[in-house]
Every structure is written in structure tokens, then in C-alpha cells.
């Protein structure tokens, strides 16, 4: 059996806040994101429907898939890309 390592990947990411501009930017990421309340989003992900709350991070991968992460998990998985 061969061993493999995961390729580095770059995602778009936005932290959810209650401002109108932030919500608009998140909703523009994908049609699979819905605003349920000013502090609650629903995302249709590859794993099924997930909810995001204020402070959570919303990601969009190269293939267009979206996902949500609690802030502490996001910080462990991702680092800001330097230009």
C-alpha cells in the first residue's frame, strides 16, 4: 500500500458577523447558503445541511463547495495566505 499526503489547498473564507455587508458577501459565495435569521445561516454542504452562527467561518473551496467551521477549528486548519 502506498502513502499519500493531502495537497495544500487555498479556500476563500469569511467570518460571519451581523453587518449587512458581511451577510451580503457571504450570500454571494454560493446559492447553497441561506439566511435564516440575522444571526443564523444554513449551508448545503457535501455532508448535508449545516448551520452557521455569528463568529463562525464560511469557506468556499476551488470546486465551489461551501462549509462552515467554528472559529477555533478554523484557526487550527487554516492560515491567511500571504501575497
Walk me through what this model shows.
This protein has 83 residues and is of the alpha+beta class. It has one domain. Helices cover 18% and strands 35% of the residues. The protein contains two helices and six strands. It has helices at 20-27, 71-77, and strands at 12-15, 33-37, 40-45, 48-53, 57-60, 66-69. A three-stranded antiparallel β-sheet has the order 1-5-6. Strands 2-3-4 form a three-stranded antiparallel β-sheet, covered by helices on one side. Strand 2 (33-37) and strand 3 (40-45) form a beta hairpin. The longest helix is centred in the first third of the chain and has 8 residues, at 20-27. The mean pLDDT is 93.
Concise account of the structure shown:
The protein has helices at residues 20-27, 71-77, and strands at 12-15, 33-37, 40-45, 48-53, 57-60, 66-69.
Keywords:
83 residues; alpha+beta; three-stranded antiparallel sheet; 2 helices; 6 strands; 18% helix; 35% strand
Strands, helices and their partners?
Layout: E1 12-15, H1 20-27, E2 33-37, E3 40-45, E4 48-53, E5 57-60, E6 66-69, H2 71-77
Antiparallel strand pairs: 1-5, 2-3, 3-4, 5-6
User: Can you give the mean pLDDT?
Assistant: 93
Number of separate helices: 2
Compute the number of strand runs.
Answer: 6
Distance between the termini: 38 Å
Number of domains: 1
**Strands in their spatial order, largest beta sheet:** 1-5-6
Q: Which blocks of ≥5 consecutive residues have pLDDT under 50?
A: none
Query: How much β-strand is present in the residues?
Result: 25-35%
The SS-based structural class is alpha+beta
**Biggest sheet overview:** 3 strands, antiparallel
